[in-house]
Every structure is written in C-alpha cells, then in structure tokens.
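User: Just a sanity check before I run the rest of the batch. Below are the structure tokens for the first item. I only need the designed sequence back.
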C-alpha cells in the first residue's frame, strides 16, 4: 500500500484532509446504510437542534500501524459505549455499538493510505460525531439525527510531544456543573472551557487544571484530558468526580499502573495534594500521557520536572501504553483490534 505523501514525523494535531468520511442519518428508528463521501462539508438544516440547542456529541479514538503491518484500533468498544451514554444524556437517538464499529472500520479502510507508518510517532485520529439534524424551534429533541465519522492523521496534541506541560489551576471559571453533562463528551463542555484555556495560554501556561465546581477544593481534570498524580508512597491517584469525562486512556493506565507495582486509586483528590506528588500527568486519546512539569495554584507553584525531563513513572506508563498500541509488546488485555482490509 502506497502511503499518502505527508511529513509523518512532524504532523501536528490538526485537520489533515483524507479521502473519505462516512455519514448516516436516521429518524423514527429508520436509518441509512452509511454513505462514504469525499465531500468535506455538509448541508445542514438551518433549524437543526445540533446548531441551536447543542444536541451534539462526539468521540475520539486512535488507529495505529503496528510493527507487523497490522492496522489496529484501541479499545473501540469503550468509545462506542461512551457515545451511547453521551447521546442518551442529551436525548439523542444513540448509535448502536455494532454500527459504530462498522462505521469506523469502513472509513479507516477507505483511508488506509492515511494511517501513519509504524515508528513515525503519528496515528490516525478517528472522530465520530452525532448531532440533531432535524429541525425544531421549540426546545425539544430532534426527530432526525446524523452520525458522521471523519479521520485525520495527527501528531501529538501538545506540540512539545512527550515533554512536560505547565498547568494553571482555574478557580474562577467552571468547565462543567455537578449533575450536569461534564461526564459525557458533548461539544458544549469544550465551548465552556475555551475562555479559561485561552486566558491560561495568554498567561504562558499550556492548559488549565479545573477544580470541582461545587466546593472548589478537589481536582477535576484538564481541558482536554484527565489528570493523575504519583504520590511519594507510589500511589497512582486520579480524581473521582461526577463532572469529568471517564477517560479510556486513564482506565488503561489504572490497570498498567497496578501491573507496574504502583497502587492505583480513584478518589477525590484535594488540590493541596499536588504539593506532595512526585510526578503528575495528563492523559487522553489525543494527549496520550503528557507529563506535567509544573502546576501554578494562585501564588504558589509546584515543579515536578526538573530540566524539562519527564519523570520515570510517566515514562514507564507512556512506554507500556504505546508499546501495546504499536504491537511492540503483547496485548494481554485484548485492547487492540485489527481492522482488516475488506
Ligand atoms: N477529558 C476530556 C475532557 C476529554 O476531552 C478527553 C478526551 O477524550 C479525555 C478526558 C480523555 O478521554 P479518553 O482517554 O477516553 O480519550
Ligand atoms: C481526545 O483526546 O480524543 C479528545 O477528544 C480531546 C479533544 C479536546 C481533542
């Protein structure tokens, strides 16, 4: 297979056009069979609920070329299940798990030449999207939904790659409300986070670390990723919160941390605990594992990465996870699934 002519090792996390996306629409339980399209745009009804009332959600997962040439997707059924939860929470008709897997497989196969070659550090990012495409003016669920899967080859989310990033604790703006929709992947959560993120960036930080919106004492997550700390006592600790996205990467690291001899713990994490960690990290599909170099909290700052170097636990977790994804070590958990050419 001749690959697309791209500068694979230097790809950013941006939209790089591919040959095809796939689209489905359905109403009243009747769906289309899925149409591969090379059109990069989409005609949308001007009164679609996705445009007016935020009836929209998405997913993000990655496809890799392994050492032996296999093209694999990481934990696809977890993303399929989370998309169902997101759809249900905002009253959209959910995409069945089998349809999700079928759509991803078809669109990846149609774009195989865009799967970055093994060893380049890049991957094919898969972005499934559902929105209310039916027209309403009153606030109520649409009677028609559109499901699209697009793919784009990407490099690291944070442009420095596997290098420490600098977070600032946000205690003025909230990303998500308790009992709200922070635990699902709806676009409005990202819109809500933009002003804090833009302010953090303009003040020289990489991203925001949010506190829980109710008590402003416990760590929630970062804008695009979950958060974890490694305590001096060897605990991998990650926040339990009803307003954060249950990260599939974090769930995987939780397992790997246990296997590495760390003690995994999911519980409320008080913000003062950051001063006792030996390492900290952000994790997610796009962010993979990004070591946290420092966290600024008001007038105080804790520095984890001296000399801009990732710590040994973040490095080991990163290597374990990416070695499984790339087939460098055996996947004993059944996390990767091959997408065979049709
Ligand atoms: N938290 C937020 C807000 C995210 O957008 C993401 C990305 O999907 C994550 C966490 C990480 O989740 P996952 O590891 O499933 O990609
Ligand atoms: C992902 O990691 O897949 C995400 O959706 C995060 C997004 C902000 C790029």
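Assistant: Here's the designed sequence for the first item:
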């Amino acid at each position: 297979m001749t690959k697309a002519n791209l500068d694979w090792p230097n790809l950013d996390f941006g939209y790089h056009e591919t040959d095809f996306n796939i689209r489905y629409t359905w109403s009243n339980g009747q769906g289309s069979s899925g149409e591969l399209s090379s059109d990069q745009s989409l005609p949308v009804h001007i009164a679609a609920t996705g445009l007016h009332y935020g009836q929209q959600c998405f997913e993000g997962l990655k496809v890799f070329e392994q050492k032996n040439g296999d093209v694999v997707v990481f934990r696809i059924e977890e993303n399929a299940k989370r998309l169902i939860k997101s759809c249900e929470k905002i009253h959209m008709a959910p995409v069945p798990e089998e349809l999700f897997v079928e759509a991803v497989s078809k669109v990846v196969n149609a774009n195989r030449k865009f799967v970055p070659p093994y060893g380049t550090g890049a991957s094919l990012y898969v972005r499934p999207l559902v929105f209310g495409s039916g027209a309403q003016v009153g606030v109520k669920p649409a009677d028609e939904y559109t499901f699209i899967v697009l793919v784009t080859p990407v490099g690291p989310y944070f442009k420095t790659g596997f290098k420490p990033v600098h977070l600032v604790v946000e205690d003025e703006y909230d990303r998500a409300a308790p009992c709200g929709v922070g635990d699902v992947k709806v676009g409005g959560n990202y819109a809500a986070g933009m002003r804090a993120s833009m302010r953090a960036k303009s003040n020289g930080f990489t991203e925001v670390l949010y506190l829980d919106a109710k008590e402003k004492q416990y760590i929630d997550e970062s804008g695009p990723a979950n958060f974890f700390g490694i305590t001096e006592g060897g605990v991998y600790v990650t926040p339990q919160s009803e307003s954060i996205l249950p990260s599939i990467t974090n769930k995987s690291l939780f397992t790997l941390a246990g296997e590495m001899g760390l003690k995994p713990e999911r519980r409320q994490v008080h913000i003062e605990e950051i001063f006792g960690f030996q390492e900290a990290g952000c994790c997610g599909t796009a962010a993979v594992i990004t070591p946290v170099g420092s966290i600024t909290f008001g007038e105080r700052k804790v520095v984890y990465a001296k000399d801009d170097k990732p710590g040994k636990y973040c490095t080991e977790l990163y290597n374990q996870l990416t070695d499984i994804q790339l087939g460098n070590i055996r996947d004993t958990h059944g996390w990767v699934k091959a997408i065979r050419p049709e």
